[in-house]
Design goal:
With about 500 residues, the chain is an alpha+beta fold. The chain folds into four domains: about 90 residues, Pleckstrin-homology domain (PH domain)/Phosphotyrosine-binding domain (PTB) (PH-domain like), CATH 2.30.29.30; about 140 residues, Pdz3 Domain; about 120 residues, Roll (PH-domain like), CATH 2.30.29; about 90 residues, PH-domain like, CATH 2.30.29.30. Helices cover about 15% and strands about 35% of the residues. The chain has six helices and 28 strands. The strands form six sheets. Strands 10-3-2-1-13-12-11 form a seven-stranded antiparallel sheet. The longest helix is centred in the middle third of the chain and has 27 residues. The N terminus is likely disordered. This is Gamma-1-syntrophin.
């Protein structure tokens, strides 16, 4: 794989993740060719002891200038321990790389402060003496307010004799003798290693989402309500990414398009492998997820995920992707490609707030309504349906429809190389015959009456053939739509 291709298939970025009822927390997304990795930050021991993450104990000394060189946020009033929010560069030799921004302070000189309020922890640190031993653990999912910048009201003074107070939502450097000029934060590369132990803050895998046959959605499940700059990815086995919140609408679209592209490439590769086991007339042209709109508007769930596949002469609708040959016999519904019509819906035709929709009308006149996530998904479906129809037209070449004309059973044959032939079913006598190229228009009354406009090959005049034709298996509207699609393919 060349470098350009690798770049197109891989994307990395930081987002927020809403996982269940928890408050959103920062994660890193890493999109590879066949998997989406969701990672969270953790502090791990990388040398001196087995690879693990957990509690650490570190002893630091108070300096004349700069004090402990720490700032803290949070407290029990926010249902979290107090957390280190800033570390002074001047203190890095004493800290020895064992403390990190995001560490929750669990004990101070053996005193359990896990459930102490912010000001209580400040007082314990103030009275801790010149040397303090901290037991800490990295808080991977810190509440959003811990990431807020310093508030102007929390300006720090060089002396810890001040009687002022600070908000637990802001950095408390005031009571820790934190020097006001030391506002820089340490980078991971600047922390020195501790003898025998070395700790690092790293991105660790939280969840892995295989992309083959996975689906993604910007909408609230079952509804037409679109999340703002957010989406979720659901693997074929049901594992869900949680709600991924992007920084902007552009960022969200970029992620969705990148994920959709990788899923599409995997699907194409999978189709090629599956088609090796199927004869030429049973090849798969398309597979992919859609959301079907429920016809019963009284239901709370308006949309249900459905997996569509175009294979051979049929359109299959599944509740889950077919994996085995047996699965193809267990489709929820199956339609003959040459007996259905597909319509890409314009904005004026949409039934709700969902975009990128199409309808499929079956031979019985039943309308199915589907939604896809992106315009590229809609384009992919439209192209695939046209391809499947074209292949089926080439394969069957000729189709005859039974109808009743003036109380007589008639046959209307469409031959995809010869054109139209209307004949008496009993005598086989041909009533009229025209080529596809002579068809200049057709219309129907929505029930049974079809009007064909043909051009006379010799006089070039338009001849109207108006016949009250009662289709036995299909409405005139359905036939008219299908006729237009077939005509465009044949011509």
């Amino acid at each position: 794989m060349d470098f350009r291709t690798a770049c197109e298939e891989t994307k990395t970025g930081v987002c927020l993740l809403q996982d269940g009822n928890q408050e959103p927390f920062k994660v890193r997304l890493h999109l590879a060719k066949d998997i989406l990795m969701i990672q969270e930050q953790d502090v791990i021991c990388v040398s001196g002891e087995p690879f693990y993450s957990g509690e650490r104990t570190v002893t630091i000394r108070r300096q004349t200038v700069g004090g402990f060189g720490l700032s803290i946020k949070g407290g029990a009033e926010h249902n979290i321990p107090v957390v280190i929010s800033k570390i002074s560069k001047e203190q890095r030799a004493e800290l020895s790389g064992l403390l990190f921004i995001g560490d929750a302070i669990l004990q101070i000189n053996g005193i359990n402060v896990r459930k102490c309020r912010h000001e209580e922890v400040v007082q314990v640190l103030r009275n801790a003496g010149e040397e303090v031993t901290l037991t800490v653990s990295f808080l991977k999912r810190a509440p959003a307010f811990l990431k807020l910048p310093l508030n102007e009201d929390c300006a720090c003074a060089p002396s810890d004799q001040s009687s002022g107070t600070s908000s637990p939502l802001c950095d408390s450097g005031l009571h820790l003798n934190y020097h006001p000029n030391n506002t820089d934060t340490l980078s991971c590369s600047s922390w020195p290693a501790s003898p025998g132990l070395r700790w690092e803050k790293r991105w660790c895998d939280l969840r892995l989402i295989p992309l083959l046959h996975s689906r993604f959605s910007q909408y609230l499940p079952g509804s037409d309500l679109c999340r703002q700059n957010a989406f979720q990815v659901i693997a074929v086995d049901g594992v869900c990414s949680g709600i991924i919140q992007c920084l902007s609408a552009e960022d969200c679209i970029d992620w969705l398009q990148a994920i959709a592209s990788n899923i599409s490439n995997l699907t194409k590769h999978n189709i090629k492998k599956i088609n090796r086991n199927f004869p030429v007339n049973q090849q798969i042209v398309y597979m992919g997820w859609t959301e079907e709109r429920e016809q019963d508007s009284l239901q709370d769930r308006m949309y249900t995920p459905k997996f569509l596949a175009l294979r051979g002469s049929s359109l299959y609708k599944f509740i889950a992707p077919p994996v085995t040959t047996w699965d193809w016999t267990r489709a929820e519904k199956t339609f003959s490609v040459y007996e259905i019509m597909c319509k890409i819906l314009k904005d004026s035709d949409l039934l709700d707030r969902r975009k990128h929709c199409f309808s499929v009308q079956s031979e019985s006149g039943e309308d199915l309504y589907f939604s896809v996530e992106l315009e590229s998904d809609l384009t992919l479906w439209e192209k695939a349906f046209q391809t499947a129809t074209f292949l089926e037209v080439e394969r069957i070449q000729c189709k005859t429809y039974a109808c009743v004309l003036e109380s007589h059973l008639m046959g209307l044959t469409i031959d995809f190389s010869m054109g139209f032939v209307c004949f008496d079913a009993a005598t086989k006598a041909v009533l009229w015959r025209y080529k596809f190229s002579q068809l200049k228009g057709s219309s129907d009354d929505g029930k049974s009456k079809i009007k064909f406009l043909f051009q006379n090959q010799d006089t070039k005049q338009i001849e109207a053939k108006v016949k009250t034709i009662h289709f036995l298996y299909k409405s005139s509207t359905q036939f008219s739509k299908q006729l237009g699609e077939w005509g465009s393919i044949v011509n």
